[in-house]
Design a protein that fits this description.
It is a single chain. This protein has 6 helices and 13 strands. The chain is of the alpha/beta class. It has a single domain, classed as Survival protein SurE-like phosphatase/nucleotidase (Stationary-phase Survival Protein Sure Homolog, Chain: A). It binds manganese (II) ion. Manganese (II) ion (MN) binds next to α3.
């Protein structure tokens, strides 16, 4: 029976993590360690300037007070599982997509990245939808992907960013391996006045704007496919290495 370490960035109360917890239970042991609040956009941050406390909600179900997704993976692995590696770190299901450059802000994807850094195969799941997300349906697609990953394994240093369209399981067109797409950036800083007449600002992405190039993550989900993007820990831009040799200066 495999052991899953389940995390998210929306908080332990999120319907996305609850649905995935229930869907994974028939497959093995599911240990949930999740933040006590919505930390979407927190990225890969790890808390090392203050102590962390963990609270037990239920059997194999914990929340970390003011803890980030990366903190949750750490405490889940080192404390709850006492340093025994789970078979898979699973992050999500996030309420909303994680596509293109947005994955660099994503706490959901960072949960999987942290698992991979600790040497554990990891998968992040996000729902491509805004309202009325059918988490129970999406969880079925997640389980299908997880079963395949358990069967075949992942290459070294690889973790997956999976985005699932918000449709009934039977309506999914298929599963595609994709590359990370590009966002078409729109105005995201909003200016308002407070009751005293002083301006304040709110950063928000209110609409999706994307370059829908074929075989990108975004292209897959708008066309009804589950998008599976393999990610790595090495952020080196290999093509650029040859183009910036002018910076090299050796005696
Ligand atoms: Mn989130």
């Amino acid at each position: 029976m495999p052991t899953f370490l389940l995390v998210n960035d929306d908080g332990y109360f999120s319907p996305g993590i609850q649905a995935l917890r229930e869907a994974l239970k028939p497959l093995g042991r599911v240990v949930v360690v999740a933040p006590d609040r919505n930390l979407s956009g927190v990225g890969h941050s790890l808390t090392f300037t203050k102590p962390l406390k963990m609270r037990k909600i239920d059997t194999d179900f914990y929340t970390v007070i003011d803890g980030t997704p990366a903190d949750c993976v750490h405490l889940g692995y080192r404390v709850v599982l006492e340093g025994k590696k789970p078979d898979l770190v699973v992050s999500g299901i996030n309420e909303g997509p994680n596509l293109g450059e947005d994955i660099t802000y994503s706490g959901t994807v960072s949960g999987a990245m942290e698992g991979r850094i600790l040497g554990i195969p990891s998968v992040a799941f996000s729902a491509f939808g805004k309202d009325n997300i059918m988490f129970d349906e999406i969880a079925k697609a997640c389980v299908k992907v997880i079963k395949e990953v358990l069967k075949h394994g992942l290459p070294p240093d690889t973790y997956l960013n999976v985005n699932v369209p918000n449709v009934r399981y039977e309506e999914i067109k298929g599963y595609l391996i994709t590359r990370q797409g590009r966002r078409a950036y729109k105005e995201t800083v909003f200016r308002y006045l407070d009751p005293y007449g002083k301006p304040f600002y709110w950063i928000a992405a209110t609409e999706f704007g994307w370059h829908a190039e074929e075989r990108t993550d975004y292209w897959a989900v708008i066309n009804g496919y589950v998008s599976i993007t393999p990610l790595g820990l090495d952020l080196t831009n290999y093509r650029a290495m040859k183009e910036i040799t002018y910076l090299e200066d050796t005696p």
